[in-house]
Amino acid sequence: PELAEELLSSAQARATVLEDWRLLTLADAAAALDHGPVARAALEQALAAGAASPLYARTLEKGAIVAREAGELRRALAWVERAQPSPHEFPHESPEAWPVPPEVLSRLDVLSWQIAEALESTETEPAGLDPGAIRRRAARRLLVRDPEQAEEIGAIEVFRRPDGTVPWAEVLAPRQLEDRARALARVDRPEDALETLEAVPEARRGHDWRGLAAPLPPSGRGGGEGPAPARGGGPGHPPRRQLHRGGAGPPVERGEEPARH
After folding, report:
1. How far is CA 45 from the centre of its chain?
2. Does position 64 have pLDDT exceeding 70, yes or no?
3. How is 101-132 classified by DSSP, letter by letter?
4. CA dihedral defined by 164, 134, 85, 177, rounded to 10 degrees?
5. Could you give the CA distance from residue 14 to residue 18 in angstroms, rounded to a whole number?
6. C-alpha span between 161 and 167 (Å, rounded)
7. What pLDDT was estimated at residue 189?
8. CA pair distance 75, 31, nearest whole angstrom
9. Which residues of 23-44 are buried (b: 16+ CB within 10 A; e: fewer)?
């Protein structure tokens, strides 16, 4: 790694993609030597080309991983947030159009979830880091964008009430519920998609909602909040054997309401 770091630091690639690869490899070599400043500088330089670079997403993910492996949890979370689209930017109907692919966003949210778990297992939490808030933020994004990954880590348990129900209309904003329904439909789960749409309050069901619901099979459930039954996980969530950390989890926070386009 020392020779690699020395050679890569002095090399000058003419092509942008080759230069980005050089910087990513330099970051790897520097991280292996615990040369954090060199690794961070290489990653920041790689990001200078912006989202147009084909290595943009890989660079953001690498930054989060390198920071976490170095124990710099706050910095790792900052890298995760840099990859996230704002509600106004996210292409709801075609998430693959965002420069950070959905699968990378999911891996970053899982990394955030793992960081929250690590923080909860330590006796002293770093100032300004709230593991509960970190976990809820990651869980909410996974529930919307990657329901199957959310199921795998038990994300819904963060929001479950003591009686076993999940107040979906409080957990996710109407636009987020619609995005979750799209994600479920994309993985061929139309019944779960419709059940998710039924959690949207009737007063908030607009043109987008009707367009999503029209091709889905009819459901026997009514509208409203669509709370999950005590034995299961609600829309798109099968029963789980064990609740997260003994049950209800922290208080539910209403999801942010993204702007409609």
Report:
1. 25
2. yes
3. -HHHHHHHHHHHHHHHHHHHTSSSPPTT--HH
4. 10
5. 7
6. 8
7. 96
8. 14
9. bbbbbbbbbeeebbebbbbbbe
Please, which residues have CB within 8 angstroms of residue 218's CB and are 6 or more apart in sequence?
Answer: 194
| Residue closest to 40 by CA, chosen among 3, 75, 77 | 75
Residue 75: burial class (beta carbons within 10 Å; 0-12, 13-18, 19+): middle
Burial class (CB in 10 A: 0-12, 13-18, 19+), 220: exposed
The Cα angle at residue 140 between residues 105 and 258, in degrees rounded to 5: 85
How many CB atoms sit inside 10 A of residue 217's CB? Answer: 8
List Cα–Cα distances, 186 to 19, 32, 193, in angstroms.
36, 39, 9
HSE-up (13 A, CA, CB side) for residue 81: 8
The more confidently predicted of residues 116 and 244 is 116
Predicted structure pTM score: 0.75
Residues with Cβ within 8 Å of residue 120, at least 6 apart in sequence: 131, 245
pLDDT in tens, 34-57: 898 999 999 999 988 788 888 999
**Gap between the Cα atoms of 139 and 69, Å rounded:** 22
Tokens of 2: 């020392």
